[in-house]
Amino acid sequence: MRNLLDDDKDHDHAHPEGLRADLPRLLLGRRAVLAGVVGSGAALALIGPRVLAQGVVTGAAADGAVCVAQPAEMAGPFPADGTNVRAGQVVNILTERGVIREDIRSSIGGLRPVAAGVPMRLDLRLVDVRRGCAPLEGHAVYLWQCDAAGVYSIYGAADRTYLRGVAISDSGGRVRMLTVVPGTYPGRWPHLHFEVFASAAAAVDGAAALLTGQFAMPEEACRVAYRADPAYAASRAALDGVRLDRDGIFRNGTAAERAAQMLRLTGDASGFVATGEVGLVV
């Protein structure tokens, strides 16, 4: 399999200055792209959204492709986005230097631990359901997940801040991160948490999120990863005791929503590529 790290050689986006210091660079890049679109006379064919019987909002692009509005889900107890506290103090990693980065396996904020586990390249696409599934550029996505042992950094392990990071969507609406296949814990199906913000400027507190959601992991890929690396021992046992249709989050969605929330994985025990789409009603 192609080394998942190869694509990082020209995309080292670990910015030690933090979100606010990155704004001038991000905005300049966005203006340049927009100027190119206007100058070329490019146009998007827009088709209005529709609401299915179950209340699910969908959109359709000019080529017939359909996008589904991602359902909002709870952030859970471990977001570290300024909306909750740990040991009596507000926790907000979004204000830390280096939080904008593609490789989220390492810790930031002066901490050293690196997440163990099977590598996973995450490739998400943000689209506007109301505007014919048009890509959403310049949006910030904050991703967090538990590690191979099913533990969340900061909360379950105060000496580490790994598996948390922010990425900014490009002109195609895409964000990319390098992480590990998430572990799990009793009662929950393997999953990732995410929040979407209108801009990097807005991504300094979870209260400003346009959408808080969760992605589910395919069972077979998880089992392959969990068998391959001993760091997943606790997660392997936890997975045996849970079912997707009984998960407290994913069981409540419609079939269309559950399909939109399920990441698609390719690869093997040496590494996976995960793809997904985040449909927003903006």
UniProtKB/TrEMBL annotation:
Record domain Intradiol ring-cleavage dioxygenases: where: 116-188
Keyword Oxidoreductase: yes
Protein name: Intradiol ring-cleavage dioxygenase
Classification via Gene3D superfamilies: Aromatic compound dioxygenase (2.60.130.10)
Coiled-coil segments on the chain, per record: none
One GO molecular-function entry: dioxygenase activity
The keyword Oxidoreductase is assigned to this record: yes
Lineage of source species: Bacteria, Pseudomonadati, Pseudomonadota, Alphaproteobacteria, Rhodobacterales
Keywords assigned: Dioxygenase, Oxidoreductase
Pfam families membership: Dioxygenase_C
